[in-house]
Recover the amino acids of this structure.
């Protein structure tokens, strides 16, 4: 039986770079197809991918996790502290070939533990209208929609989750 593994990955590794490119390409193309009727222009795509190093996902104030399915890199999720008790979830991605196999939940389990390890007791995130699968996953996993917590130009929805409780059992974290 093939299963998921999730482990920390340096933000600047070749695996992280490939997953960032796949993630960014997909979310950018979705936006461009919806609003412009065509995929992201190559120069815009290159500019967007190069616009961030991902260094905010490095310890001690952040973490990038990579999921593997059958040993092959299949997804990622990042977390960064925005203050001593609040972590922001970012770059949640499962490649198309591996969707529908529980990879999103595996990533969220692991990234929530990583956030707790950084000292956070709440997680926040933002997402867009067109990322309906992501919004559904967050809701299933106990994230609640809130008022805006930032002014990101592409954000349409903001979520929050109390990390002191485990969504799947309702028991306090660390008490299972």
């Amino acid at each position: 039986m093939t299963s998921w593994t999730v482990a920390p990955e340096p933000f600047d590794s070749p695996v992280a770079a490939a997953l960032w490119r796949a993630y960014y390409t997909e979310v950018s193309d979705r936006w461009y197809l919806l609003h412009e009727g065509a995929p992201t222009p190559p120069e815009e795509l290159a500019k967007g991918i190069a616009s961030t190093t991902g260094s905010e996902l490095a310890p001690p104030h952040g973490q990038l996790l990579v999921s593997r399915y059958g040993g092959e890199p299949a997804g990622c999720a990042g977390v960064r502290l925005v203050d001593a008790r609040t972590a922001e979830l970012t770059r949640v991605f499962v490649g198309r070939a591996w969707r529908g196999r529980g990879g999103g939940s595996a990533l969220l389990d692991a990234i929530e533990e990583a956030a707790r390890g950084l000292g956070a007791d709440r997680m926040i995130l933002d997402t867009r209208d067109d990322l309906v699968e992501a919004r559904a996953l967050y809701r299933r996993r106990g994230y609640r929609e809130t008022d805006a917590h930032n002014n990101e130009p592409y954000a349409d929805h903001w979520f929050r989750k109390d990390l002191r409780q485990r969504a799947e059992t309702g028991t306090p974290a660390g008490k299972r």
User: Anything to note?
Assistant: The helical segments are 14-36, 42-50, 103-117, 132-140. The domain at 56-162 is CATH 3.40.630.30 (Aminopeptidase).
